[in-house]
Amino acid sequence: MPIAFPRQPPPPHHSHSHTSTSSLHSYPSSIDDDSDASSSEASDDTEAEMQAMIQEEWEESLRQMEVVLSIIIIPTFAKWYGRKFAYFAFARYQQIGSFSRTFFGL
């Protein structure tokens, strides 16, 4: 099941109190402290969202590893070990005979 990533919000538009004929945005200055505070809050929010997204991806990869382990690796190992034990038990049965106490080494 794919992870639905949150959509990125559009960048905030800063309205400047001074009039300018230029259509270019100005760089943030140290005079405009309000925009710096809002940008730090926005960066905290995006950092929290990024951490949540990373955590969600990690949990999804763990679920996928669990599925691979339970569907492929464990049954394959159990099949191999079961056959190995069956060959051992049959060879022991051919040597000793019926399933008596000596069969189990008692």
TrEMBL record:
GO cellular component terms, semicolon-separated: mitochondrial outer membrane
Pfam families the record matches: Mim2
Residue ranges of the region described as Disordered: 1-50
An annotated GO BP: mitochondrial outer membrane translocase complex assembly
InterPro entries noted in UniProt: Mim2
Biased composition regions of type Low complexity, renumbered to the chain: 18-30
Stretches with biased composition (Acidic residues): 31-48
UniProt xrefs under PANTHER family: CHROMOSOME 1, WHOLE GENOME SHOTGUN SEQUENCE (PTHR28230), MITOCHONDRIAL IMPORT PROTEIN 2 (PTHR28230:SF1)
Protein name: Uncharacterized protein
Source organism of this protein record: Kwoniella shandongensis
